[in-house]
Amino acid sequence: MKFTWFNLMPWPDLPDDFRQSHRSVWVDIPSSLFDPVRANAVYHEYMDQLEYADELGFDGIGVNEHHQNGYGIMPSPNLIAAGLARRTSKAAICVIGNSIALYNPPIRVAEEFAMLDCISGGRLVAGFPVGTPMDTNFCYGQIPALTRDKYDEAHELIRRAWSEDEPFAFDGKYNQLRYVNCWPKPIQQPHPPIYIPGGGSIETWDFCLDHDYNYSYLSFGGYLAGKRLLDGYWDRVAARDKDDSPYRAAFAQIICVADTDEEAERLYSEHLLYFFNRCLHVYPGYSDPPGYRTIDTIKAGALDQFRAAMQKLFSSTTWGQLVEAGHIIAGSPATVVDRMKDLITTLRVGHVFCLMHNGNMPDWKTRQSSRLFAEEVMPHLRDMWPEWEGDDRWWIHPHEGRVQPESTIADARRHAAEPATVAGD
Amino acid sequence: MTSTSVTTSTTSTADVPPSTTTFGSDVALITTARGIECDVVVLGPQDAPAIVAFHGLAGHLAGEPTLVALAARFRVYAPVWPGFGSASGEELLEDMLDFALHGADVVSALGLRRPHLYGHSFGGMIAAEMASLAPDAYGGVGLVAPAGLWLDEHPIADIYSMLPFDFPELLCHDPAAGAAMLTGGVDFEDPEAMTAFLIANSRRLGTAGKVLFPIPNRRLSKRLYRLRNPVALVWGAADRLIPPIYASAWHQLIPHAETTIIEAGAHLVPYEQPAAVAGAVASIYDAAG
B210-247 b/e with 16+ CB inside 10 Å = b? Predict the structure, then answer.
C-alpha cells in the first residue's frame, strides 16, 4: 500500500454565513474574502504540514490544481511542488495534477514536470486531470464540448515531448508548434508515473487502460459512495483483459484520527462541517455545463458530486452522517484501521490519498491526526495486497544518488556565515 | 421521410407541444457535401420564393408559428441543426467557419439559388455569418434577436451556467407559458425522462457552445461590413438575454438594416408575436425580390 498525504489547501476563514450570503465557493467567490497578508501564513502552514508528512513516513505528499476556488488556493500546484522538492528528499511529490488543457501551450507542463522530476531526483508523480467544469470551462473559458478533445491533444503533445529525442513539428488542432524539443527531460524513464484523476466520466477508464495509467478516483463522497464507480472500473479492467493489480487505482479519502472515536468527533467535527458546509458550496449551474459530459456518461448516471442532490446533503450534514455514510473515516486508530481495511478491499485500491487536513482544521490538530495515522494506522495496512508485493509500475523510481536538499540548505547557511574567500580558493 | 423525434413524457398534456418535434408534415432528409445528414422541414407553396430558416437554441419549438406565417407566401426550408435532432454530425462542426459553411452546404444540398435567410438567436448568428461570407448567394436576411456581438457594458447572460428552470424567466415574456413550451411537458421527477432531457439539452447547447461559449462572439463585427443585402433586425422589447440595445449595435454595423422592436415579446419573440415578426422580415424579403 502507498499512502499519500494530501492537503487541498482550503481558505480557512470563510465566514459562518458563507453558504447563505454567497452563491459559490468556486468561480465567482468574492475576492474580498481572500486576504493576501493572511495567505502568507496560511501557505507556509500548509507547506510545513506537507514536509511534516514526509518526515512521518508517508510515501507521498500531494498537491492539486484549482482555480478561483475557496477550498483550494493552489491554482499552480507546481509552485508548491517546487518548494517541496527543495525541502524534502524521501516522499514522492504527487502533483495530481496539472490540468493540461489549460496550459498554453501544453509543453509548459512537459517542461515544468521535467524540472520538478530533476530537482526532486526522480520523485514526481505526474497527474493529468481533464479538469472540472468549474476550472476548465467557467474559470478558463474552455468550450465544454471540446474540452476533452483539447485534453487529448495536450496529452499526446506532452508524451511526445518527453519521449522524442529530436525536435519535431506538431500540427494539432489547438496547438501548432514548429520545434518541440523538451529541454529538460524527466529523470524517470520513460516518464514519471502518470495518474489520471477522474470524477465520474467512464471514458477516463479506457484512457487509463489504453496507456496503463493509474485511475485516481477523487470524490468527497467517500468510499461507500465511490464503490459503484470503482466497480465499474474493475469491470472494465477485466473486459480489457488487463491484470487487476490494485496499484492500478487510487482513491482520495478524508481521514481523521484521535485517541478515541468520541475524541475524534470532539476535535474534528467543527472543521469537517466547515469543509462540507462551506467548502463544497458550489453553485449548481457551474457543475455541469452542457457539452462537458459525454452522452455515455450521462446515460450511465454517473452524476457529479456537485449536483443538487449532493449539495443538499452536504449543506446540512452532521458528523454522525458523515461517518455513517463513509464520507469521512474518523475515530480511534483501531476504528480507522478497520474502516481503512474496508475501503481498501471494497474499492481494491493500492494507493490512498489521505486528506488529513480538512476545512479550517488548526495546525496542531492536523499534525496530531497525521502522526496518529502514520504511527498507529499505516503500519497495519502496509501489506494488504501481498500477492502484488513489489508491483511498482505506478510508483516513483527516484535516482539513488539524488541531492539531499536539507543538507544543502544547512551548507548554504554555514557558507553564508563564513568569511568571504578569494575566487578560485 | 424521417422525422426528428424526442422522447416525450407520457404525462405531457395534449395542448403542450413537445419541444423538438417537427412542425410540418414534409421533412426532407438531405446529406451535405461534407457528409452530414440533416432533416429539413419544408412548408409553403412549392413555387414561392425560398427562405432558409435557422432555429435558435431550443431547436424547433411550439409549431414554429413565425415560419408557418411566412409559409403563406414563401417556401420555407427549416433545417434541423446537427446536435438538435436524431442524426449525428455535430462532432464535425468545431468553429464558426464550420458552422457558416454547414449552413451554406445545406443551401447547396437543397439546390436553392439565392434564397432569403432567416435566423433566430443562435440561428441568426449563423445566418449573419453566411451572408457576410457570401452576400451575393442570398437575398434578404432576417435576423431575430441574433447572437454574434458583445457589448462589455451589456453582457449577455451566461446560459451555460444556468439550470434549465432558469430559462423561462430569462427568455420569455410570460415565463409560465414559456416554461411549458421549453420543456415540452417533460416530467422531471421521472429519471428516464430527466436523463433524456439532459442528453438532448447537452447535445443542443453543447453543439452551440462551440460558437457561444464562453462569450457569444466570434468576431462577426469584423465581417458585417460585407452584408449589403436587405437586412431586417427584429427584437422583442423585453428581451432579457440579448437586450434591445444590441439592435442598435447591429444597426451601427449594418446601417441600411430595418430595425423593428416588438412589444410584448422577449428573446423568444418569434413564438410570442409571430405575426409581427413574420411581417417585419417579410418586408425585406419582398424588397430583395
Answer: bbbbbebbbebbebbeebebbbbbbbbbbbebbbbebb
CA dihedral A198, A201, A205, A208 (to 10 degrees): -50
pLDDT mean across residues, chain A: 93
Classify residue A91 as exposed, middle or buried by CB count within 10 Å of its CB (0-12, 13-18, 19+): buried
Tell me the pTM.
0.92
Residues of chain B with pLDDT > 70, as a percent, come to 92
Cis-peptide, bond into residue B85, ω within 30° of zero: no
The answer to whether B183 touches A121, Cβ cutoff 8 Å, is: no
- The DSSP element (H or E) to which B238 belongs, if any, is none
- Model confidence at A423: pLDDT above 70: no
Q: What is the 3-state secondary structure (H, E, C) of B182-237?
A: HHCCCCCCCHHHHHHHHHHHHHHHHHHHHHHCCCCCCCHHHCHHHCCCCEEEEEEC
What is the DSSP-derived secondary structure letter of residue A54?
H
What is the model's pLDDT at position A307?
A: 59
Minimal C-alpha gap between B263 and chain A (Å): 31
- DSSP β-ladder status, B75-79 and B37-43: antiparallel
* pLDDT digit string, tens, across residues A18-50: 999 999 999 999 999 999 999 999 999 999 999
> What local confidence, expressed as pLDDT, does residue B5 receive?
31
Report the DSSP beta bridge partners of residue A5. Answer: A61, A354
Chain A residues 290-319 with CB within 8 Å of chain B? 290-293, 295, 298-299, 301
Q: Report pLDDT digits (tens) over B83-124.
A: 998 878 999 999 999 999 999 999 999 999 999 999 999 999
Which residue in A121, A98, A101 sits closest to A111, CA to CA?
A98
CATH topology for B5-288 is: Rossmann fold (3.40.50)
Closest CA to A275 of A322, A209, A345, A330: A322
Q: What is the pLDDT of residue B194?
A: 77
Among the partner residues B163, B191, B209, nearest to A145 by beta-carbon distance: B209
CA distances from A66 to A78, A185, A305 (A): 12, 26, 16
Residue A418 CA, distance from chain mean position: 42
How far is residue A112 from each of residues A50, A77, A98, measured CA to CA in Å?
Answer: 20, 11, 10
Mean pLDDT of A277-297: 89
- What are the residues of chain B with a beta carbon less than 8 Å away from any beta carbon of chain A? 94, 160-163, 166, 191, 195, 198-199, 201-207, 209-210, 213-215
The ipTM is: 0.90
> CB of A167 within 8 Å of any CB in chain B?
no
| β-bridge mates for residue A394, sequence order | none
Q: CB-based contacts of A220: which residues, under 8 Å, 6+ apart?
A: A252, A254, A276, A280, A305, A314, A327
Measured over the CA atoms of residue B192, residue B80, residue A295 and residue B242, the dihedral's sign is negative
Rounded to an integer, what distance in angstroms lies between the CA atom of residue A1 and that of residue A345? 11
**Range in A22-36, A294-308, A355-369, B47-61 with the lowest mean pLDDT:** A294-308
Average pLDDT (B44-65) is 95
